Amino acid sequence: MKNVPIVVVGASLAGLRAVEGCRRAGYAGPLTLVGAEEHLPYDRPPLSKAFLDAGHDRPAESTFRSEDEIHELDVDLRLGQLATRLDIEACAIVVGEESLPYSSLIIATGAHARALPGEALPGVHTLRTVDDARRIREALDAGARTVVVGGGFIGSEVASAARKRGVDVTIVEAADTPLVHAVGSEMAQVCARLHARHDTRLLCGVGVSALEGAGRVQRVVLSDNTSLEADLVVVGIGAAPATGWLEDSGLDLDDGIVCDETLRTSAPNVYAAGDVARWHNPLFERRMRLEHWTSAAEQGAFAARNALEPDSAKPFETVPYFWSDWYSQRLQMVGIGDADEVRLLGDPDADSWIALYRLDDRLVGALSLNRPGRIMKYRALISRRAAWDEALEFAHA
Ligand code: FAD
User: Fold this and answer.
1) Which of 37, 65, 142, 304 is deepest in the core (most CB within 10 A)?
2) Contact 308/27 with Cβ under 8 angstroms?
3) CB 287 within 8 Å of CB 280
4) Whose CA is nearest to atom 53 of ligand 1?
5) What average pLDDT does this structure show over 310-322?
6) Nearest to 327 by CA among 160, 204, 174, 165
7) Residue 264 — very low, low, confident or very high, per pLDDT cuts 50/70/90?
8) Is the pLDDT confidence value at 58 over 80?
9) Is 100 helix (H, G, I), strand (E, B) or coil?
10) In sequence order, what E strands does 242-347 have?
11) Non-local CB neighbours of 278 within 8 Å, separated by 6+ positions
């Protein structure tokens, strides 16, 4: 197997961290990184934030490493190439016409933005790639009346970027409150109030029944038979793991690639990392698939290490963490949001608060607005399985 490469599929955050992790661990053998996009690996969070601000044109700045820096990793970089099949028996993947054998495989194919059913009219976009972000920014530059479908984190960031420019924007959310699944109903309502405070119209409990227009989108027809005039529609209704190419592989799939606690999949020498991986997180004793920057980066490095030393593979446990920027304010969540009790510390209408989440007698989560230092202290408490009483003591100390 000496000349058979370690192959990483997915040339984004988790994939790049996997390649870097292999080299950092001293692996000097052949390494191949296959990515469907033409771009060098780049950072996605800025795409719904600074990238949409007026006057910015910064795709190059969000590239993680220059081409030269990637070549220093001595990696066979294959951009613009889609892996279409995994043959577990042959230990090979298919890329174009070629069969690429692997000694170990790390799958980091991430997720695709979900689209509304039917053919998309011009002017209707999802936001996952830098090309999507460019198109959305162009429309915002032209002052497009904007409708955001879905009041999740990315939709909310797009809405706040549009408001910053003074663009007319409405968020349409099918649930009674957005983000309930992520932060629980009580805090979801507190977050939703941020939109009202910044004059973004948020319509809840109403779906989209049609997108209409002659040649391009002109209006969004809602399930209550009202309609909204729109030049730009951004669909932010979540993401689906990019596992289509693995469907006939025999790999265990269940809303992502099923992995054990070491990120090992059901196939020998095959690991998964990032948004595509559903792994057993020992810290919460449950399977999770996260769509968060920090865990994707951590898992890429971890999967590489475990692929190199499978006999001493270590479990990957983490406290989920993500942030989101709305109207120049920072929301941050650590841990999990499904809890028996949520305790809000502070005034929900103030510019800074923190909420703690209890499950049984443990602190399992915390959500904050503009408390970056504090929230990380709660992350540390969750990481060492701190009791609820201890968290409250810390909160009031
Ligand atoms: P991805 O970044 O999805 O990369 C997967 C790569 O694999 C893609 O380049 C894809 O083209 C490629 N690929 C897919 N299938 C194949 C195939 N068959 N063959 C070859 N290549 C393939 N997280 C936060 O914590 N905070 C934030 O504020 C935040 N903001 C975000 C804003 C936006 C607009 C988006 C889209 C995401 C945001 N995230 C945020 C999430 C974060 O960016 C992701 O968790 C992270 O990008 C996941 O990295 P990944 O490498 O697992 O997958």
Assistant:
1) 304
2) yes
3) yes
4) 110
5) 97
6) 160
7) very high
8) no
9) strand
10) 257-258, 270-272, 277-281, 286-288, 321-326, 329-335, 341-345
11) 241, 254, 255, 256, 257, 258, 259, 287, 288, 289
Give 89 Cα–ligand 1 centroid separation in angstroms. 28
| Distance of CA 98 from the midpoint of ligand 1 (Å) | 25
Which residues have C-beta atoms less than 6 Å from ligand 1?
9-15, 34-37, 44-45, 47-48, 82-83, 108-111, 127-128, 154, 242, 245, 274-275, 291-294, 296, 322-324
> Residue 253's pLDDT band (boundaries 50, 70, 90)?
very high
- Give the mean pLDDT of 74-83: 97
**Which one-letter amino acid corresponds to residue 167?**
V
Cα angle, residue 332 at apex, residues 286 and 306 outer, rounded to 5°: 45
Question: Quick one: 117 exposed, middle or buried, by C-beta within 10 A (0-12, 13-18, 19+)?
Answer: exposed
**Per-residue pLDDT, 248:** 96
8 A C-beta contact, residue 62 and residue 51: yes
Q: What is the pLDDT of residue 397?
A: 87
pLDDT above 60 for 304? yes
For the whole model, what pTM was predicted?
A: 0.97
Distance 285 CA to ligand 1 centre (A): 25
Cα 44 to ligand 1 centroid, rounded to whole Å: 7
DSSP string over 210-227 = EEE-SSS--EEEETTS-E
Q: Is the pLDDT of residue 166 over 80?
A: yes
Residue nearest to atom 46 of ligand 1 (CA): 293
| Structural domains in the chain, sorted by start | 6-48+62-112+239-312 (3.50.50.60), 115-235 (3.50.50.60), 328-395 (3.30.390.30)
